[in-house]
């Protein structure tokens, strides 16, 4: 038994027999999914408003594929049948719903594995698999609410799994609105991720046209076979409505259709289905209406006219029409107020009844009628007289009374009766009065720019074939010579010319060789000028009516009408067949009569102007602006290019597919740029094998070759490739230029405008180039003749023997090794003059060189005194030159080591060490100084002592730590002039410690201590005596001490010192 399908559940109703009406749109969607020749996209999004029958379509699709009933096509691809996996959306994580449905763990991999198992079982039965998620929007709403993007990634994985051309799978989801509309709470970055997932699905629009809903209704109403009480009335009404333009009419089927929809008429059925589509749920609401025919008044009335549809809407959809989101809410509110106002002016019940029907008809026909249609007094009077028993005269009188009372009026701009609420505005008179106040002499170009928002047009065919999105922008041309070259994300201009003084001949002449520029000469300038003039007048009136809210609404609507009319003249008239506007490209007149024709022309323009652009179908990279994820992937790809270029797939793991690997495959592997060299046994880079890529490759090669004579800034290459005939998108341009620099890194020298030559390229250097390519230049070299001979010797010297890299590569590598040698030196080694003159000259040559070629073949030989080297004339000179380079390098490299040796000798001599081996003399020093008590030492002496006995077991580090404290700063940064200070300080600190060690060794108590007295005689002999001072003797010597003081205080200072010295000396000598 067939049941009504007001609401279908694909799980609950799978065994039911539903009353399904097949439509043309449904058949086309079925064929798009199951009979498409494009096997690369097998994931589909069916988008349709609530109640359009998406779920019922899925139900019918399953019945068709199971061969139970051929709703759409008896011809199915797999005669063995289809298996289904079905899921209905709910307000939970999609991974949770899938894991529950598939009885598996709640992880992405487990879900994919479970689906793979189901598919494998279907394949064993030779069946295809259909995966369906109905009400998918509920899952998206949950993701939008919680911000959990992991579930979104699961959908991407499933779609990619289903899109595998080798698999016989169809993946279908249904939505009530566009995919991106569910991402309202997300950031722009997250929204772009949604767009990426959306791109995995092919969108199919399911909204049935109004004609289809009318067809549904006619099927049901036709089966009821209502008897027409007045055949003549019905015929006259049909003839009247056939001539109106309120709703579209198909003359071929009109007569049969109006018979089958009786007791509704052509206006009432159109208003009904439009209102149900707008406020209800399409077919679902229509089926609800038809299922209760008697309750809707279809039995009692001879006709079901527009005013009765009004009553039905108010009764059943009141919440929807009063919803603040309803765009017609104001019209409905004015309508309800119009009833109240009409009641005050009509005492007669019949006249009020007619007035209410007039008001109801005006309300619905102005909302749903076509904008370019007419709804005047004559039409409305005839319509109501044919649907009811009222005379045309009575109805016309009521309409006039409503107009006189200011409730309704006929608006000339829209050609419709509409409501006039609470204003004395006579707009026609106001427009006439204000005409003289408005300046007619205004610039059309400036006004159009203000009033019209022009769309951006895409060259669709070209973008699809080449993979590069190309966009054209409308531009109003004020001056014929003000022609621009497209930059950034815009790839061309459609130049609109309104100035009638500019003729076609002049435009053709100027348009030659102007790149991607099309020109349109408008011939309807008068209409455009008049429309703008009307807008100016209305805006002036608006300013004078600031306190009249109703008048402002009316004027605002009038302004919008004229703005739409202006847009019609400027944009719509571009595509009218046989229009007078002239299109010109590159000096030739072209014919454009439709949007499709224009799009074809835009693609044609791109093919001519951007003829050298390669085909690169990677929407993640080949665009103006890339996401942060792809930017990160690009950096990771550069790392692989730098460090794994000789490996298969750049060293990427075979079972993993990160974004950077996808970029590698599409750019390097598929194009043959990275390939295996069977002769050499490893992977290498080479020219692309795809023909469309050769112009780009050759352009880059030519740029590299042109840098032999002089440096060229990398920004020049960016400029060349960023303009026609290439104009690469920035996302692709940044990737390609840096990748090419990596590929050719051995064939050029890289320079920074301030820092000079850069010996090697790494990730940091690439990042700096990406940010400021204008700061970097490259230079290539020719190595031949004597330079080649010298280069071979250099290669032996620095041990470079990588033949596959080629001459240029070896040349730059050799120079890079010299730079690395210099950069590895500490500051002392870079500045010291304690080395030979030739070594100093050679070191300065490395330091000051700005160009690798000059350094290796001019500066280095000159620094060592070899101004003319000729291996053919004197091979000994050549060998001598190489010997001197080796000697200079050795001397420079060991300069710091020699300093450490001198420091070591000074320490050993000062502390009188017998051993010269580090470990032994270190033990000897510790032993010699073991008696020292550091707490008794001065601060500097204590630190020097601790450095001497520190447990550092590395000789160089130990010597540096001791010397640093002796000098007071790091010795690897000291100047030559500071060496004498260092050595004196080492000697002084060491001697002091050596001397104080004996004093500290004395076992003193609280009253006794040892001191040392040292003096130098005139014969150079140093005399030293140690004295033990005993505090207990102070009392005994107190009196003699005072007697001596009394005597010597009478002497002068010199006399006192001489006397005391002689006494002390005699005492020390004799005792």
Element layout with pairings:
Blueprint: E1 2-3, E2 17-18, H1 24-34, E3 43-47, H2 54-65, E4 82-88, H3 94-102, H4 108-124, E5 128-134, H5 137-146, H6 150-162, E6 169-175, H7 188-198, E7 202-205, H8 210-224, H9 231-243, H10 254-260, H11 266-279, H12 283-291, H13 306-316, H14 318-321, H15 329-345, H16 349-368, H17 377-387, H18 392-404, E8 408-411, E9 416-419, H19 427-434, H20 444-451, E10 456-458, H21 460-466, E11 471-476, E12 492-497, H22 504-511, E13 517-521, H23 525-544, H24 549-570, E14 582-585, E15 588-590, H25 595-609, H26 628-643, H27 659-669, E16 674-677, E17 682-685, H28 694-705, E18 712-713, H29 714-721, H30 730-743, E19 749-752, E20 756-758, H31 763-771, E21 776-779, H32 786-798, H33 806-823, H34 827-831, H35 837-848, H36 852-863, H37 875-910, H38 918-928, H39 939-948, H40 955-967, H41 979-1001, E22 1008-1016, E23 1022-1030, H42 1038-1048, H43 1053-1070
Parallel strand pairs: 1-2, 3-6, 3-7, 4-5, 5-6, 11-12, 12-13
Antiparallel strand pairs: 8-9, 10-11, 13-14, 14-15, 16-17, 18-21, 19-20, 19-21, 22-23
């Amino acid at each position: 038994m067939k049941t009504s399908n007001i609401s279908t559940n694909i799980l609950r109703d799978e065994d039911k027999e539903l009353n399904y009406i097949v439509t043309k749109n449904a058949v086309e969607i079925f064929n798009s999914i199951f009979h498409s020749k494009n096997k690369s996209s097998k994931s589909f999004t069916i988008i349709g408003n609530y109640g359009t029958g998406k779920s019922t379509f899925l139900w019918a699709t399953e019945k068709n594929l199971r061969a139970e009933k051929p709703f759409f096509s008896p011809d199915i691809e797999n005669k063995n049948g289809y298996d289904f996996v079905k899921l209905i959306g709910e307000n939970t994580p999609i991974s949770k719903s899938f894991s529950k449905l598939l009885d598996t763990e709640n992880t992405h991999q487990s879900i994919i594995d479970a689906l793979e198992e189901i598919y494998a079982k279907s394949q064993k039965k030779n069946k295809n698999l259909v995966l369906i998620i109905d009400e998918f929007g509920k899952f998206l709403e949950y993701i939008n609410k919680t911000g959990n993007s992991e579930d979104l990634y699961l959908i991407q994985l499933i779609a990619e799994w289903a899109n595998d051309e080798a698999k016989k799978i169809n993946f279908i989801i249904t939505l009530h609105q566009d995919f991106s509309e569910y991402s309202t709470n997300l950031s722009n970055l997250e929204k772009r991720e949604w767009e990426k997932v959306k791109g995995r699905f092919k969108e199919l629009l399911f909204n049935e046209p109004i004609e289809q809903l009318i067809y549904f209704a006619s099927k049901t109403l036709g089966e009821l076979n209502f008897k027409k009480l007045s055949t003549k009335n019905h015929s006259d009404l049909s003839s009247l409505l056939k001539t109106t333009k309120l709703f579209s009419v198909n003359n071929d089927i009109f007569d049969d259709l109006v018979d089958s929809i009786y007791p509704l008429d052509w206006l009432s059925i159109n208003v009904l289905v439009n209102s149900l589509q707008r406020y209800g749920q399409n077919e679902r609401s229509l089926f609800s209406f038809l299922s209760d025919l008697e309750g809707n008044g279809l039995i009692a009335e001879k006709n079901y006219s527009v005013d009765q549809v009004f009553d039905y809407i108010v009764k059943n959809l009141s919440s929807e029409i009063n919803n603040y989101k309803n765009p017609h809410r104001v019209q409905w509110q004015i309508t309800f107020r119009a009833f109240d106002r009409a009641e005050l002016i009509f005492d007669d019940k019949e006249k009020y009844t007619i007035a209410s029907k007039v008001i109801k008809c005006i309300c619905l026909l102005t909302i749903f009628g076509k904008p370019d249609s007419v709804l005047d007094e004559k039409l409305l009077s005839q319509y109501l007289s044919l649907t009811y028993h009222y005379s045309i005269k009575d109805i016309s009188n009521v309409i006039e009374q409503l107009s006189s009372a200011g409730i309704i009026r006929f608006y000339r701009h829209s050609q419709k009766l509409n409501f006039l609420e609470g204003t004395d505005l006579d707009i026609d008179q106001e427009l006439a009065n204000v005409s003289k106040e408005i300046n007619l002499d205004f610039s059309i170009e400036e006004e159009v720019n203000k009033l019209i928002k022009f769309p951006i047009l895409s060259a669709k065919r070209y973008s699809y074939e080449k993979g590069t999105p190309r966009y054209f922008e409308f531009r109003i041309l004020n001056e014929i010579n003000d022609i621009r070259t497209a930059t950034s994300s815009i790839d061309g201009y459609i130049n609109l010319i309104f100035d009638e003084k500019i003729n076609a001949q002049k435009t053709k002449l100027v348009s030659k060789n102007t790149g991607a520029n099309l020109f349109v000469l408008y011939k309807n300038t008068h209409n455009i000028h008049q429309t703008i003039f009307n807008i100016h007048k209305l805006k002036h009136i608006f300013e004078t009516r600031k306190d009249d809210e109703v008048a402002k609404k009316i004027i605002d609507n009038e302004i919008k009408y004229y703005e739409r009319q202006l847009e019609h003249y400027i944009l719509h008239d571009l595509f009218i067949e046989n229009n007078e506007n002239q299109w010109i490209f590159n000096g030739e007149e072209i014919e454009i009569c439709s949007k499709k024709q224009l799009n074809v022309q835009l693609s044609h323009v791109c093919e001519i102007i951007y003829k050298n652009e390669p085909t690169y179908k990677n929407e993640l990279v080949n665009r103006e602006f890339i996401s942060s994820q792809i930017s990160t992937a690009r950096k990771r790809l550069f790392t692989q290019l730098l460090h794994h270029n000789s490996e298969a797939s750049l060293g990427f793991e075979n079972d993993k597919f990160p974004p950077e690997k996808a970029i590698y495959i599409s750019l390097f592997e598929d194009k043959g740029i990275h390939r295996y060299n069977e002769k050499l046994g490893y992977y290498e880079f080479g020219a692309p094998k795809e023909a469309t890529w050769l112009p780009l490759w050759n352009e880059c090669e030519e740029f590299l070759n042109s840098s032999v004579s002089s440096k060229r800034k990398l920004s020049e290459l960016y400029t060349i490739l960023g303009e026609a005939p290439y104009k690469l998108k920035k996302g692709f341009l940044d990737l390609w230029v840096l990748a090419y620099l990596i590929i050719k890194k051995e064939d050029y020298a890289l320079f920074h405008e301030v820092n000079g030559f850069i010996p090697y390229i790494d990730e940091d250097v690439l990042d700096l180039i990406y940010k400021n390519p204008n700061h970097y230049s490259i230079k290539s070299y020719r190595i031949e003749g004597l330079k080649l001979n010298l280069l071979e010797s250099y290669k032996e010297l620095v041990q470079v023997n990588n033949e596959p890299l080629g001459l240029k590569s070896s040349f730059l590598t050799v120079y890079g090794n010299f730079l690395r040698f210099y950069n590895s030196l500490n500051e002392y080694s870079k500045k010291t003059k304690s080395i030979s003159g030739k070594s100093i000259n050679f070191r300065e040559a490395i330091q000051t060189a700005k160009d690798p070629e000059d350094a290796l073949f001019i500066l280095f030989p000159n620094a060592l005194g070899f101004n003319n080297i000729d291996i053919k004339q004197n091979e000994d000179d050549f060998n001598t030159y190489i010997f001197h380079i080796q000697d200079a390098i050795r001397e420079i490299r060991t300069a710091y080591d020699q300093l450490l040796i001198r420091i070591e000798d000074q320490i050993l001599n000062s502390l009188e060490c017998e051993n010269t081996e580090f470990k032994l003399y270190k033990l000897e020093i510790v032993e010699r100084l073991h008696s020292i008590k550091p707490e008794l030492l001065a601060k500097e002496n204590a630190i020097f002592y601790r450095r001497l006995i520190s447990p550092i077991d590395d000789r160089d580090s130990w010597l540096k730590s001791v010397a640093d404290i002796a000098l007071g700063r790091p010795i690897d940064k000291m100047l030559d002039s500071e060496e004498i200070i260092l050595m004196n300080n080492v000697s002084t600190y060491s001697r002091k410690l050596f001397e104080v060690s004996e004093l500290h060794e004395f076992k003193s108590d609280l009253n006794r201590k040892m001191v040392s007295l040292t003096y130098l005689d005139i014969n150079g002999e140093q005399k030293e005596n140690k004295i033990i001072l005993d505090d207990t003797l102070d009392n005994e010597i107190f009196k003699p001490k005072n007697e001596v003081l009394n005597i010597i205080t009478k002497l002068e200072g010199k006399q006192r010192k001489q006397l005391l010295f002689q006494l002390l000396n005699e005492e020390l000598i004799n005792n």
